[in-house]
Amino acid sequence: MTGRPVIVDTDPGQDDAVAILLALASPELEVLGITAVAGNVPLDLTSRNAMVTCELAGRPEVKVFAGCDRPMQRDLFTAEYVHGATGLDGADLPDPRMPLQEAHAVDFLAETLAGAQPGSITLCTLGPLTNIGTLLERHPGAAAGIREIVMMGGGFFEGGNVTPAAEFNIYVDPEAADIVFGSGLPLTMIPLDATHQALILPDHLSRLRRRGAVGEAVAGWLEFYERWDVDKYGMEGGPLHDPCVIAYLLQPGLFTGKDCNVRIETVSPLTRGMTVVDWWGVTRAPANCTVIRRVMAGEFFDLLIERIGRL
Ligand code: BDR
Ligand code: CA
Fold first, then answer.
1. Ligand 1 residue neighbourhood (C-beta within 6 Å)
2. Spacing, Cα 1 to ligand 1 middle (Å)
3. Cβ 238 vs Cβ 199: under 8 Å
4. Which tens digit of pLDDT belongs to each residue from 161-199?
5. What ligand has the least distance to the C-alpha of 9?
6. Which residues pair with residue 141 across a beta bridge?
7. Ligand 1 centre from 173 Cα, in Å?
8. Active-site residue numbers?
9. Whose CA is nearest to atom 4 of ligand 1?
């Protein structure tokens, strides 16, 4: 039995890297490729970090593509202040030996989707939506191959983490997000409202450390990465955002939300990148997205730790 075909679009980042590990550890999913985008750190580092992660998983044959090196209409805003200078600070891992694929990520996406059964491939997006916005703008026909897009991004009742209004992935490239939310494709958004419930606690780190070399590296990453949110927001632990996307595909019953209309603010400097979620249906505008609001955090970490232990 082969797994559900997915492409992971990502800007690693420690939490992205853990999401990639979770996907590669899960037989329910077939990772057709990993497409890197500029976000947490510049593109050369996100591409490198995707390859470091594949090699950590013992999967150097996974195809990694470099994509867009800056947002569609804006300068790049990065988050070394969270992820460290490399984007993967916290574990000492070797430079990757596997090759970066020659094709541009957007060309890989276009060709793969054009050759796929209609509605067959799931895109898991863990970073700014630049690669996907560019794909839909340049290759509108490629949309036919997409089954759904499940993204980490946005925040509504919880607010933002870059500005009071905006979450990082949408803030970095709001024009790309606007294209995606206007595409009519089936969308699921996992915003800060849900991921701020998935807090990394000391017990999770010690359980990971008992799971061998991969668990040890993951614990090192997460210990480094969570200090930012713990210090800034006074949280009990750092929120583990991006693996929620993969966990949603594996066990959707761990998540609850509802179908809503969502629009992206692209004009106002004050609220740039805000995900305007019509949770109460006040506009009566048609729903274009399933918006997740809750995650069963204990079960989510049980799943994650068990899967990391398989690597
Ligand atoms: C998102 O921004 C990045 O820092 C994380 O990798 C995650 O995708 C959270 O706002
Ligand atoms: Ca990310």
1. 13, 15-16, 40, 79, 82, 126-127, 152, 161, 167-169, 241-242
2. 33
3. yes
4. 999 999 999 999 999 999 999 999 999 999 999 999 999
5. 2
6. none
7. 13
8. 241
9. 40
Rounded Cα distance, 170 and 90, in Å:
26
Sign of CA dihedral 250, 169, 214, 1: positive
Token duo for residue 81: 């202040």
Query: How far is the C-alpha of 151 from the C-alpha of 244, rounded, in Å?
Result: 9
- Amino acid symbol at 10: T
Most ligand 1 atoms within 8 A of CB, residue of 9, 168, 195, 244 to mutate: 168
User: Hey, which of 221, 224, 228, 241 would you mutate to test ligand 1's pocket, going by the most ligand atoms within 8 Å of its Cβ?
Assistant: 241
21-57, pLDDT tens digit by residue?
Answer: 999 999 999 999 999 999 999 999 999 999 999 999 9
CA distance 98 to 40: 22
Residue 56 burial (10 A CB sphere; 0-12, 13-18, 19+): buried
| Atom number, ligand 1, closest to the C-alpha of residue 168 | 10
The DSSP call for residue 102 is S
CATH architecture of the domain with range 4-308: Alpha-Beta Complex (3.90)
Diameter over CA atoms, the chain: 53
Residue pair 132/183 in contact (Cβ under 8 Å)? The answer is no
Residue extents of the structural domains in the chain: 4-308
8 Å CB contact between 155 and 113: no
User: From the CA of 124, how far away is ligand 1's center (Å)?
Assistant: 13
Q: How far is the CA of 161 from the centre of ligand 1 (A)?
A: 9
Mean pLDDT per 10-residue segment, the chain (311 residues): 92 98 98 98 98 98 98 97 94 96 98 97 98 98 97 96 97 98 98 96 95 95 87 86 98 98 97 98 98 98 97 95
153: three-class secondary structure by DSSP: coil
